[in-house]
Amino acid sequence: MRILLIEDEREIAEFIIRGLRAERFAVDWTSTGEEGLGWAKVNDYDVGVFDVKLPGMSGIDVCRALRERKKEFPIIMLSVTSDAITKVGALNAGADDYLSKPFFMAELLARMRALLRREHRTINPILRIADLVLDVASHTVQRGKKNIRLNRKEFSLLEYMMRHAGTTLTRGMILEHVWDMNADPFTNTVDVHIRFLRQKIDEGHNIKLIKTVHGYGYKIEV
Ligand code: CA
Predict the structure, then answer these.
(1) Residue 86 belongs to what domain range?
(2) What's the CATH number where 47 sits?
(3) pTM for the complete prediction?
(4) Which one of 23, 39, 102, 118 has the fewest CB atoms closer than 10 angstroms to its CB?
(5) Dihedral angle sign, alpha carbons of residues 3, 32, 105, 74
(6) Distance from the CA of 10 to the center of ligand 1, in angstroms?
(7) In angstroms, what is the span from residue 197 Cα to ligand 1's centroid?
Protein backbone atom coordinates (compact mmCIF):
# COMPACT_ATOMS: atom_id res chain seq x y z
CA MET A 1 0.00 0.00 0.00
CA ARG A 2 1.43 3.33 -1.05
CA ILE A 3 0.51 6.55 0.71
CA LEU A 4 0.76 10.16 -0.46
CA LEU A 5 1.41 12.40 2.55
CA ILE A 6 1.13 16.19 2.14
CA GLU A 7 2.13 17.94 5.36
CA ASP A 8 4.21 21.10 5.76
CA GLU A 9 5.13 20.61 9.43
CA ARG A 10 8.23 18.47 9.42
CA GLU A 11 7.76 17.06 12.94
CA ILE A 12 4.23 15.94 12.27
CA ALA A 13 5.25 14.53 8.90
CA GLU A 14 8.08 12.54 10.47
CA PHE A 15 5.73 11.22 13.16
CA ILE A 16 3.27 10.04 10.51
CA ILE A 17 5.96 8.57 8.25
CA ARG A 18 7.45 6.58 11.14
CA GLY A 19 4.03 5.23 12.06
CA LEU A 20 3.11 4.30 8.49
CA ARG A 21 6.45 2.68 7.67
CA ALA A 22 6.25 0.62 10.86
CA GLU A 23 3.00 -0.76 9.44
CA ARG A 24 4.75 -1.53 6.13
CA PHE A 25 3.17 1.25 4.11
CA ALA A 26 5.33 2.90 1.43
CA VAL A 27 5.15 6.69 1.90
CA ASP A 28 5.81 9.60 -0.46
CA TRP A 29 6.00 12.83 1.50
CA THR A 30 5.90 16.40 0.26
CA SER A 31 5.32 19.69 2.10
CA THR A 32 3.43 21.42 -0.71
CA GLY A 33 0.05 20.87 -2.29
CA GLU A 34 1.37 21.69 -5.75
CA GLU A 35 4.00 18.97 -5.62
CA GLY A 36 1.56 16.47 -4.09
CA LEU A 37 -0.94 17.10 -6.87
CA GLY A 38 1.80 16.61 -9.47
CA TRP A 39 2.83 13.29 -7.92
CA ALA A 40 -0.76 12.07 -7.67
CA LYS A 41 -1.25 12.68 -11.38
CA VAL A 42 1.56 10.29 -12.29
CA ASN A 43 1.57 7.76 -9.43
CA ASP A 44 -1.07 5.30 -8.35
CA TYR A 45 -1.68 5.86 -4.63
CA ASP A 46 -3.79 3.72 -2.31
CA VAL A 47 -4.53 6.44 0.28
CA GLY A 48 -3.87 10.19 0.59
CA VAL A 49 -3.25 11.96 3.91
CA PHE A 50 -3.38 15.73 3.38
CA ASP A 51 -2.97 18.60 5.82
CA VAL A 52 -5.56 21.35 5.24
CA LYS A 53 -3.33 24.39 5.84
CA LEU A 54 -0.31 24.40 3.57
CA PRO A 55 1.86 27.31 2.40
CA GLY A 56 0.34 27.55 -1.11
CA MET A 57 -2.43 25.35 -2.43
CA SER A 58 -4.41 23.91 0.51
CA GLY A 59 -5.04 20.22 1.12
CA ILE A 60 -8.71 20.84 0.30
CA ASP A 61 -7.75 22.38 -3.07
CA VAL A 62 -5.56 19.36 -3.85
CA CYS A 63 -8.38 17.03 -2.96
CA ARG A 64 -10.85 18.89 -5.17
CA ALA A 65 -8.39 18.99 -8.08
CA LEU A 66 -7.82 15.22 -7.81
CA ARG A 67 -11.53 14.42 -7.74
CA GLU A 68 -12.06 16.61 -10.81
CA ARG A 69 -9.42 14.48 -12.53
CA LYS A 70 -11.27 11.32 -11.44
CA LYS A 71 -8.54 10.26 -9.03
CA GLU A 72 -10.67 8.31 -6.59
CA PHE A 73 -8.24 6.92 -4.01
CA PRO A 74 -9.39 7.51 -0.39
CA ILE A 75 -8.22 10.79 1.19
CA ILE A 76 -8.04 11.71 4.87
CA MET A 77 -7.69 15.39 5.73
CA LEU A 78 -5.75 16.56 8.78
CA SER A 79 -6.31 19.89 10.48
CA VAL A 80 -5.73 21.72 13.75
CA THR A 81 -9.12 23.33 13.34
CA SER A 82 -12.01 21.08 14.22
CA ASP A 83 -14.72 23.56 13.24
CA ALA A 84 -17.65 22.37 11.18
CA ILE A 85 -16.96 24.74 8.26
CA THR A 86 -13.49 23.29 7.60
CA LYS A 87 -14.77 19.73 8.01
CA VAL A 88 -17.70 20.29 5.68
CA GLY A 89 -15.39 22.02 3.19
CA ALA A 90 -13.04 19.02 3.21
CA LEU A 91 -15.83 16.50 2.78
CA ASN A 92 -17.47 18.55 0.03
CA ALA A 93 -14.16 18.70 -1.79
CA GLY A 94 -14.24 14.90 -1.96
CA ALA A 95 -12.30 13.88 1.16
CA ASP A 96 -13.43 10.61 2.74
CA ASP A 97 -12.50 11.37 6.33
CA TYR A 98 -11.24 14.13 8.58
CA LEU A 99 -8.96 13.98 11.60
CA SER A 100 -8.24 16.85 14.01
CA LYS A 101 -4.71 17.41 15.26
CA PRO A 102 -3.31 16.30 17.60
CA PHE A 103 -4.24 12.68 17.00
CA PHE A 104 -2.93 9.28 17.93
CA MET A 105 -1.19 7.31 15.19
CA ALA A 106 -3.42 4.35 16.06
CA GLU A 107 -6.47 6.41 15.14
CA LEU A 108 -5.04 7.50 11.78
CA LEU A 109 -4.16 3.87 10.99
CA ALA A 110 -7.59 2.63 12.05
CA ARG A 111 -9.30 5.20 9.83
CA MET A 112 -7.03 4.37 6.90
CA ARG A 113 -7.83 0.68 7.29
CA ALA A 114 -11.55 1.45 7.46
CA LEU A 115 -11.31 3.38 4.18
CA LEU A 116 -9.32 0.62 2.52
CA ARG A 117 -11.91 -1.91 3.69
CA ARG A 118 -14.59 0.23 2.16
CA GLU A 119 -12.61 0.12 -1.08
CA HIS A 120 -12.95 -3.70 -0.85
CA ARG A 121 -9.22 -4.00 -0.71
CA THR A 122 -8.80 -5.34 2.80
CA ILE A 123 -12.10 -7.06 3.50
CA ASN A 124 -10.34 -10.14 4.71
CA PRO A 125 -7.21 -9.71 6.80
CA ILE A 126 -6.36 -13.37 6.10
CA LEU A 127 -5.20 -14.13 2.56
CA ARG A 128 -4.88 -17.72 1.35
CA ILE A 129 -3.56 -19.45 -1.73
CA ALA A 130 -3.35 -23.24 -1.51
CA ASP A 131 -1.51 -23.90 1.79
CA LEU A 132 0.02 -20.43 1.94
CA VAL A 133 -1.65 -18.18 4.53
CA LEU A 134 -0.84 -14.53 5.18
CA ASP A 135 -2.42 -12.79 8.17
CA VAL A 136 -2.32 -9.03 7.69
CA ALA A 137 -3.34 -8.28 11.26
CA SER A 138 -0.71 -10.38 13.03
CA HIS A 139 1.97 -9.97 10.29
CA THR A 140 2.45 -13.72 10.04
CA VAL A 141 2.91 -16.05 7.08
CA GLN A 142 2.61 -19.84 7.03
CA ARG A 143 3.08 -22.39 4.32
CA GLY A 144 1.46 -25.61 5.47
CA LYS A 145 2.38 -25.92 9.12
CA LYS A 146 5.62 -24.01 8.78
CA ASN A 147 5.96 -20.39 9.93
CA ILE A 148 7.84 -18.25 7.44
CA ARG A 149 9.80 -15.22 8.55
CA LEU A 150 9.70 -12.35 6.08
CA ASN A 151 11.21 -8.92 6.39
CA ARG A 152 8.98 -5.89 5.98
CA LYS A 153 9.50 -5.49 2.24
CA GLU A 154 9.04 -9.19 1.50
CA PHE A 155 5.82 -9.18 3.52
CA SER A 156 4.46 -6.14 1.64
CA LEU A 157 5.41 -7.72 -1.68
CA LEU A 158 3.73 -11.02 -0.82
CA GLU A 159 0.62 -9.22 0.49
CA TYR A 160 0.35 -7.20 -2.73
CA MET A 161 0.75 -10.31 -4.89
CA MET A 162 -1.76 -12.33 -2.84
CA ARG A 163 -4.33 -9.53 -3.04
CA HIS A 164 -4.00 -9.80 -6.81
CA ALA A 165 -3.65 -13.58 -7.00
CA GLY A 166 -3.89 -14.94 -10.53
CA THR A 167 -3.12 -11.53 -12.06
CA THR A 168 0.16 -10.88 -13.83
CA LEU A 169 1.87 -7.97 -12.14
CA THR A 170 4.53 -6.07 -14.03
CA ARG A 171 7.68 -4.87 -12.28
CA GLY A 172 6.30 -1.33 -12.69
CA MET A 173 3.04 -2.21 -10.92
CA ILE A 174 4.93 -3.90 -8.11
CA LEU A 175 7.33 -0.96 -7.70
CA GLU A 176 4.39 1.44 -7.76
CA HIS A 177 2.53 -0.23 -4.89
CA VAL A 178 5.23 -1.77 -2.73
CA TRP A 179 8.05 0.76 -2.96
CA ASP A 180 8.01 4.53 -2.47
CA MET A 181 9.24 6.98 -5.08
CA ASN A 182 12.84 6.69 -3.94
CA ALA A 183 13.00 3.25 -5.53
CA ASP A 184 15.14 3.28 -8.65
CA PRO A 185 13.03 1.85 -11.49
CA PHE A 186 16.17 0.92 -13.42
CA THR A 187 17.51 -1.52 -10.85
CA ASN A 188 16.46 -5.13 -10.49
CA THR A 189 15.21 -4.60 -6.95
CA VAL A 190 11.85 -6.31 -7.68
CA ASP A 191 13.57 -9.39 -9.15
CA VAL A 192 15.90 -9.59 -6.17
CA HIS A 193 13.02 -9.48 -3.69
CA ILE A 194 11.04 -12.02 -5.69
CA ARG A 195 14.06 -14.34 -5.56
CA PHE A 196 14.25 -14.04 -1.75
CA LEU A 197 10.50 -14.58 -1.49
CA ARG A 198 10.70 -17.69 -3.67
CA GLN A 199 13.41 -19.17 -1.49
CA LYS A 200 11.23 -18.70 1.57
CA ILE A 201 7.82 -19.57 0.10
CA ASP A 202 8.43 -22.16 -2.61
CA GLU A 203 11.73 -23.89 -1.91
CA GLY A 204 11.17 -27.52 -0.87
CA HIS A 205 7.53 -27.52 -2.07
CA ASN A 206 6.32 -29.43 -5.12
CA ILE A 207 3.80 -26.76 -5.98
CA LYS A 208 5.53 -23.47 -6.76
CA LEU A 209 3.17 -20.57 -6.17
CA ILE A 210 5.26 -17.66 -7.47
CA LYS A 211 5.32 -17.78 -11.26
CA THR A 212 7.41 -15.82 -13.73
CA VAL A 213 5.46 -14.53 -16.72
CA HIS A 214 8.22 -14.06 -19.26
CA GLY A 215 8.35 -10.63 -20.78
CA TYR A 216 5.75 -9.26 -18.32
CA GLY A 217 6.46 -9.88 -14.68
CA TYR A 218 5.22 -12.17 -11.94
CA LYS A 219 2.08 -13.65 -10.49
CA ILE A 220 1.08 -15.82 -7.62
CA GLU A 221 -1.35 -18.68 -8.17
CA VAL A 222 -1.75 -22.41 -7.66
CA1 CA B 1 -0.04 22.95 8.03
Answers:
(1) 2-118
(2) 3.40.50.2300
(3) 0.70
(4) 102
(5) negative
(6) 10
(7) 40
> How confident is residue 44, by pLDDT bands cut at 50, 70 and 90?
confident
For the stretch 154-170, pLDDT in tens is: 999 999 999 899 999 99
**Residues 10 and 95 reside in one and the same domain:** yes
Helix (H, G, I), strand (E, B) or coil at 121: coil
Q: Is the pLDDT of residue 150 over 70?
A: yes
Q: Among residues 72, 59, 68, which one has the least CA distance to residue 30?
A: 59
| Residue with more model confidence, 86 or 141 | 141
Same domain, yes or no: 12 and 99: yes
Q: What is the DSSP string of 41-85?
A: HHS--SEEEEES--SSS-HHHHHHHHHHTT--S-EEEEES---HH
Ligand 1 centroid–CA 9 distance in Å is: 6
pLDDT at position 182, please? 79
Question: Is there a single domain that holds both residue 47 and residue 106?
Answer: yes
For residue 51, how far is its CA from the centre of ligand 1 (angstroms)? 6
Give residue 21 CA to ligand 1 midpoint distance, Å.
21
Distance 179 CA to ligand 1 centre (A): 26
